[in-house]
Design goal:
Strand order of the largest sheet: 11-10-16-7-8-15-12-13
CATH superfamily of the largest domain: P-loop containing nucleotide triphosphate hydrolases
Number of domains: 5
CATH architecture of the largest domain: 3-Layer(aba) Sandwich
Number of strands: 31
CATH class of the largest domain: Alpha Beta
Oligomer: single chain
Radius of gyration: 28 Å
CATH topology of the largest domain: Rossmann fold
Distance between the termini: 60 Å
Largest sheet: 8 strands, antiparallel
Helix content: 25-40%
Shape: globular
Length: about 600
Amino acid sequence: MIEVSRIRNFSIIAHIDHGKSTLADRLLEVTGTISARDMQAQVMDSMELERERGITIKAKAVRMKHTAADGTEYILNLIDTPGHVDFSYEVSRALAACEGALLVVDATQGVEAQTLANATLAQALDLKLIPIINKVDLPAADVEGVHTQIYDVLKIADDPIAISAKVGLGTQKVLEAIIRDVPPPQGRPESALSALIFDSSFSVYRGVILLVRVVDGIMKPGMKLRFFSTGHEVTVEETGYLIPKMEAADFISAGEVGYVICGIRDIHQVRVGDTLMEASRPLTAPLPGYKEAKPVVFAGIFPVNPADYQDLAAALEKLNLEDSSFNYSPDSSQALGFGYRLGFLGLLHMDIVKERLEREFDLSLIVTSPNVVYRVQTRKGDWLVIDNPARFPPHGDIQIIEEPFVLITIVLPVEYQEGVLNLLKERRGEYVGIEYIAANRMLIRYHLPLCEMVVNFYDRLKSVSKGYASLDYADEGRRASDMTRLEILIHGEPVDALSSIVHRDKAYNVGRQMCAKLKELIHRQNFEVAIQARIDNHIIARETLGAKRKDVLAKCYGGDITRKRKLLSKQKEGKKRAKQFGAVELPQEAFLAVLRLDDDKK
């Protein structure tokens, strides 16, 4: 058993694309955890989607051994974290299992919005932050300028370590700083067992695999464990470490990070963030420092083939075990049939979950336009929580509508200020403050309705700033707003999957754009189709999709005019019958039309 004083648990946090995964690769390489033969770029990003997009989606843990200059051997437990704002939930889980963090900043980009957010989160958990400036070997690197930003914006006085993770420059200094500056765990092996579940996965053969940080005590096979939140008891079948693949061990002791298999087949028994304890020595309180996920964006997911509904249900259960930050509940739609309503942490999170469901479980899915959660007070005084436009009460029953607001932080070069401020004004933003963090960089803070962020905001921001702006946001509560439900009617029938909740001042423009977009996407029928937008039972916009035309007079070469009139009259009667009984089939692209309404503005 290794002494607790020779264990270091740390995380790597940074803005997206600042070099977290590359630095993790170098640490694994230098410590000899992975042989040169098995080495590959983004070795900790095992998911195909992560490699394809060049981002980290899930937190990963790995155990390394390193011998210091004085000959002492240390155990270094690294937890790699995502950088995108949507995955801050994964970051909070990783940080709760650590005593320190490497804060990586790109020497060419400087402090970005997510750098600031992650640093604040780590400081709130009282972690030791080691600042690192990466990519110092690039011609555009501004090491001194970034050093000043770290001190002025992040309030970190320690001198940063200058490295180039790509070529391995400075990696040894990083290892020395981890051993020197990150405090060892405080747990004791002889105490009652307490362990934090910071991640999990599902194996068809082994059942649920829990990734845990043991705070106190020892966990070993044969031990009877209890989940603090549910009280469910299980027996340990196997314990071990991630190096980076699973390797069985006789036990995991206080201060260590590893995995445990208990033969759990029912995924509902596991809650990521829960505390594990020994059944014979129960704890009186769970471990602190864990942050619950709060989904902010909701959308419906429906199978293209209704027969795949049960497969979708099974896929969501398994995926929810690996990514417990989204929630789901059964839903139904007149247009799309049976499906599920999912809550996500953001639009990228929604996109990732949809892609994983399609790739990993071989499903074809339709995703409805995303929306946020509103609180509605009826005229009777009751408060309703609305996460689906289809459940919005009638206009006459509504007293007050409250929508969620966020405090948005944007870091960008000064030359793109005008375009970004115009975008924020267009999205109903309210000015909070502007701060200049360098000669050519600024930080903008605005209050923004969350519903204005969930549709195309990130893409528009990248467009007006040429990709140089970075974004972070935090919850700012709710405010009363003049919102209304915008309904889309196809051939006189409302399509619930195309309904959305919009601000009344924007309803006409959004409705007109929706009708025009749907006219392009819906296939022509044998009859004329009306596409309408409606609010409060008033039609505010309309487009008419003309009927298919067949030249019934083509076979008439001259002759009596009455023959032509008879053919035209017969065609007219047929179209009238088709219009009365016909149904319009909507293509999959129609349900994503609302996401592309701003494309012409880019």
